[in-house]
Amino acid sequence: MPDNPKLTGAPVRLEGRAKVTGAARYTGDFADETLSAYLHPGETPKKVLYAAAVQSTIPAGRILALHTEAAEQIVGVHAILTHKNAPRLKKARSLMQSELAKYLPLQNDTIHYHGQPIALVIAENSEAANHAITLIYATYAESPAHVDFEANLHKAQPEKKVGSGEAGHKERGHPQHEFNKSEVQIDHIYTTDPTHHNAMEPGATLAHWHAPSKTESIELTCICSTQFVYGDAIFLGEAFDLGMRDGMLRLGLQIGLGAEMSSKVRVAAPLIGGGFGSKGNNSHLALAAMAAKYTGHPVKLVLTRPQTFSMMPYRGGACQRIRLGADSTGRISTLMQEGILQNAETGTFIEPIGEMTSHLYNVPNTLIDHQSVRLNVNATGWMRAPGITPAQFALESALDELADKLAIDPIELRLINYAEKDPDTGKEWSSKKLRECYIAGASAIGWHKRNVETREGEEAIGYGMATAVYPTNHFPSTARLTLNADGTVLVQASAQEIGQGTITTLGVIAAEALGLPLTQVRVEVGDTTLPMAFMAGGSSTSLSVGTAILDAAKKLRKKMTQTQERPLSVKGIAGRTFGRSKYGRAAFGAQFVRVAVNHHTGKIRVTHMAGAFAAGRILNPRTARSQFLGGMVMGLGHALMEQTSLDLTHGAWVNANLGEAHVPTNADIPEITIQMIEEDDSRGSDLGAKGIGEIGITGVAAAIANAVYNATGKRIRSLPITLDKVL
Ligand code: MOS
C-alpha cells in the first residue's frame, strides 16, 4: 500500500456523529417523504401502509380456519393476507441459508412451528394494524410436535454438509485407536442453550412496487434491515419470478467479470442497527413485498421485539462430546469433537462446530462429527462466530480439564501443543502471533496471581483462559472509486454498515491508497445500485471490499496520469484474490478473565477480562477495539446469562423479550483490557488485514468457566453458568 498519509492506525469514526445524535436513519424510520429518494423520476406512489403479523399458537399442524372478520371491521385496515389470498411465491435460493430456502410464508396451511406467520394485517397506521392482529384467531388441526431438544437427542441424524458447505464428518489419522491407548483421557459432554441475537434494531422491511416505466428497470424496491443487500435482491427476484434464476451463479460470475448485475429488484440498507448474523432473507422481507404487491401501496413491516425471537434465526442449542487423549507430558495425540446441534423442520443451517477444531492445535489424530435434531421450532442460523463460539466453549473447557488433570499450567498445555503450521493441511500460516497473545493477555490479567490470590472476603477468586480463533474469510467483491473535479473521491460498494464502522474503514482504506486526507473521501454503501460486494458476515467486509478498493485505487492512479477528464470513475475487483491460498489463514487470540464467586449466593462477578488478538493489520483502532470489545461482552453474556427457553408444551419462546432474555448491561461488564498485537499478514493479502468482527466472542465462555473452576473447584459444563449451577 502507498505510504502516506498514515491513516490506518488513526482512531476515527465517520458515521458516529449521525448515530449518536439521532440523525441516522434506519429502515423503520422511512416513511412517505423519505421514500422519495428511492422513486423513479416523476413517480408518485400511494401512501405507505403499515403491516403487522399474526403468528401461529401451535407448534405443528394445519390451519382449519382463520377468523379475520372482526379485524376487517377496524377503521384503517386495508387488507388481510392469509395463505388463501397471499401472492404466490416461487421456491427461491436463499444465500443467507435462511429458512426461506425451505419454507415460504403464507403459501399453504401447514404449521411447522409456534410463531410462524399465518396472517398479515395491512393498515393505514401501525396502531390499526397492531390492534387488528389481536382480533384474528385460527382454529387448527394439531399434529404431534417435537420441541424438546434434550428429549430428542436420541433421534439425532448425521449431517453430511454443515456451515457453508464443509463436511459434517471428518477424520485425520486414527483418532479412536489413539484415544483408546492414551495415557490420559478426557471425555466429557458440554451443552449450550439457544441464544438470540437481540440486535437493537428489529427486523424491518419497507417494500415498494414501482409503477410500470419505459425507462427504469427496477420494479421492486425494498429498504430492509439486512446484512446482504444482494442476497435479498436475488431472493426476491427469484421468489417473485423477476428473472433472477441462478442468482448465486450470476453473483459469482458478475463479480468475476467486474460487471454490475442489472436487476429488477433494488434492496437498500442505508444503515443497519446490528445483526450479528440474524439479518438477511428473513420472512419479513417476503411478507412486506407480498403486502405491497397485493395492496398496490408501499408497505412497511417492522417486527416487534418478541417477534424477533420467532421470525428471525438464532443460535440453536448444542450438545458436544469432547475426547482428548494425551501423554503425561501434555502432548495431545487425539482430539475428537462431536456435536448434536438443534435445528428445525424448516432449517437449512447446521452450526459448524468443527470448523477450526482440527486446525487449532498440533494434534495428529482428529475426528469431527455433526448431527442434528430437527424440531418444531423456528430455524436456527448464523450468530456471531457460528459454530466456533459453542465449539470453543467445549474444546477450551476440555483443555482446562486436561491441564488440571496433568497439573500443567493451562497456557503451558496450549504451548506444548502449539500448531506452528496448520496441522490439517500442512500449510504454513500466512501469519500467526498466538504465542504473543498468550503472553500479552497473561500479563494484563496478572496470571501469576492464579492460585496465589484465592479469596477476597466472601468471594472465591479464580483465573481462567482460553484460545480465541476465527478463519480469515476473503470473498469476491467489487468497489468503485470516482475522482471528482474538486479533488474529492467517492467510494461506492454495496457493503453493509451494520454498526461495525464499515463506512469509516472503507474510507480509510481508500484515502490511504490514494494519498488523500479522509475529509476528501465520501463513502456510499448498502444499496444494490452500487457495485456488488459480499455480505456483512464471516468477518469478511474490510478485507474483501478493501481489496477491491486497493485494486480500484491502483487503476485510478494510473488513469489520472493519462487523462484530465473529471469525474473519473474506475471499478476494482477482489474476485481474483478469492480462492485457495497457499497459506493457512486465521486470526488468533487469547482470552483471560478473573472472577469472584460469592460463597453464599453463588453469584459470579467477572472483575476483569483481558483479550489479546493478533488479527493482521489493524485498519482503524477505534472500530477494531469496538469489535473486540463487543465480541467479549457478547461472550460474557453467552457464558453467564443468555438463554432462550422453550415452553416444552407449545414450543413457544417463553422469555421472548428484553426483560426476561438477559443480556449483559453496563453493570455486568468489568474492566476490559484489549490488546491488538501487531501482525504483518502481507503473505495473506495485499491489505494485510484479517477478520475481527467475530473472534472477540470466541473463547470467552470457556475462559469464564475455567476461572469459575479455578475459584470454586466446580466444573460447569453447561451454559449459561447461572448461580444455581455453582452452588
Ligand atoms: Mo456473522 S454470524 O457471519 O453475520
TrEMBL record:
Residues 21-144 form the Aldehyde oxidase/xanthine dehydrogenase a/b hammerhead domain. Residues 158-182 are annotated as: Disordered. Keywords: Molybdenum, Oxidoreductase. It holds the Pfam family MoCoBD_1. SMART domains: Ald_Xan_dh_C. The keyword Oxidoreductase applies. GO terms for molecular function: iron ion binding; oxidoreductase activity. It comes from the Bacteria. This is Aldehyde oxidase and xanthine dehydrogenase a/b hammerhead. It comes from Terriglobus saanensis (strain ATCC BAA-1853 / DSM 23119 / SP1PR4). The keyword Ribonucleoprotein does not apply.
